[in-house]
Amino acid sequence: MKTTQFLYRNSLPLLLTLISYTSWAQAHFTKVEQGTVVEKPSDSRSVNFVDVNNDGWEDLFISNGPSSGQHNFLYINQGDGTFTSLTDDPIVQDGAKSDGATFADVDNDGDLDAYVVTWYGQQNYFYRNQGDGSFLLDKDPVLTTKGTYSETASWGDVNNDGWLDLFLTNSEGKNKQNQLFLNQNGNHFQSTETPANQTKTLSRSVNWIDINKDGKSDLFITNEGKSPNELYLNSGKAPFFLPEQQEIWGELPTGSMSASWGDVDNDGDLDLFLANAGYYQEINNQLLLNDGKGNFTQKRGSTLSQDGGCSYGSAFGDFDNDGDLDLIVANGFCKSKLENWLYQNDGKGNFTRLPTALPNMASHCSFGLAWGDINNDGFLDLAIANCQNGKNQAQPVNDLYLNNGNTNHWLKIKLEGTASNRSAIGATVRVLTKGGKWQMRHINTQSGYCGQNSLIAHFGLGSSKKVRKIEIIWPSGKRTSMRNQKANQQLDLVEE
């Protein structure tokens, strides 16, 4: 197994000399007030932390979707605390009415490609990375069919052949059906009929997850309105998906926009957060705990299920590096609760909202969001896409928050597949620290509705100065194990 290790020194002092900011004693983050990312008004949708030029620094893609159309944004990380805005590339010149976006190495050539969906019956856009962070529009007639009202899409390997397939959600139009596209050796795609794209629901987000730990990627779809959410188990062969009928999905209040999966209680299985909303209508969110056998129980009485908002984007991430997954939730298209919520996990799946952790949070409509370590200091930073709350509202600017950090330790793991798809989408990474505490991360291309966290698995280690054991289950089924790795480093691991 090939490994590359990078040790990063904290670059926050440099960053603070390059931006003006407001710092509160209670704040865990510093809001970036100047710079290209936070100064241009837009009606934004998706947030994706992706290293498009393979220089080791997380770049930032933000899609824009007003009804009149608008160019998307791709910000290139300069490695010194600043970003430059890419302007002379097709991915930021289509002027489309964009919605969700998803990035992964679709053709296994070593760089991240992009699929950006649109609403209003327009075509969707497939962009191939040229290896240097520039993109060319691929006019594959299957992927760029016109007339869709698409919400988002996500890359995942449905048949474990090493090539990433694509699932697309739609929410309007004559044909509201979702779509599955099979990757044909990275060259072109084939539209495929499965039970997962035969229901005419108003679908929003989609997640590839291995819910029953059988090594195959299952599918979870959130639906707005009165349609229940859908869980499909992967059979491993065409037509791939079998609907999983569980009473819990029918009993939950309907109107889900986002789903985020993560092991919130560190018991070795994926739990589920649902962000719910009606159009300008508040609906409580839900947290569902997995019993390890794929059975879910709603955690009632939790702060997460009592805040009552119009929630759209969501994402798990250990922002304080204490060894458990915290949660960020975006609210928008609401009459009053136009604020975003950061929740801190106590390690047992109990969450507390931190109202002052994100300083200078403006009261405007927000959509997608994502976590990524933009300054390579080992602490997760946050980007939020903001939107118009109504046609008469001025377009807002987007938000970028730098993590102030603390004394806790961390480990980052970047995977490269060989037998598996090169982005290692679908891989599971587990780490063991002192006291017998295991943590788990699942590599995926959608961390919530219109949001993609960094593809680098991030672990907070608390006071642990080393990791006793690392276990990786690759999509191919291969396993990698390592012992006694130092904290505060990034490991680049190649599948062997």
In order across it, which strands form the biggest sheet? Answer: 6-5-4-3-33
Q: Low-confidence parts, pLDDT < 50 over ≥5 residues?
A: 1-25
Assign an overall shape: globular
| Structural class category | mainly beta
Number of E strands: 37
Helicity level: under 10%
| Cα separation of the termini | 5 Å
Fraction in beta strands? 35-45%
Overall pLDDT score: 91
Largest sheet: 5 strands, mixed
SS field, number of helical segments: 2
Rg calculated over all Cα atoms: 20 Å
What are the defining features of this structure?
42% strand; mainly beta; 496 residues
Explain the overall architecture.
This protein is 2% helix and 42% strand. By secondary structure, it is mostly beta strands. The strands form nine sheets. It has a five-stranded mixed beta sheet with strand order 6-5-4-3-33, with no helix packed on it. A four-stranded mixed beta sheet has the order 1-37-30-34, with no helix packed on it. A four-stranded antiparallel beta sheet has the order 2-29-28-27, with no helix packed on it. A hairpin with a 5-residue loop joins strand 21 (286-290) and strand 22 (296-298). The longest helix has 7 residues, at 12-18. The protein is globular and about 55 Å long. The relative contact order is 0.15.
Secondary-structure map with pairings?
Layout lengths: L2 E4 L5 H7 L10 E3 L12 E7 L8 E6 L8 E5 L5 E3 L12 E7 L8 E6 L6 E5 L5 E4 L11 E7 L8 E6 L8 E6 L3 E5 L10 E7 L8 E6 L6 E5 L6 E3 L3 H5 L4 E7 L8 E6 L9 E5 L5 E3 L12 E7 L8 E6 L9 E5 L5 E3 L11 E8 L8 E7 L11 E5 L5 E8 L11 E6 L3 E6 L8 E2 L4 E6 L3 E8 L5 E8 L2 E6 L2
Parallel strand pairs: 3-33, 30-37
Antiparallel strand pairs: 1-37, 2-29, 3-4, 4-5, 5-6, 7-8, 8-9, 9-10, 11-12, 12-13, 13-14, 15-16, 16-17, 17-18, 19-20, 20-21, 21-22, 23-24, 24-25, 25-26, 27-28, 28-29, 30-34, 31-32, 31-35, 35-36
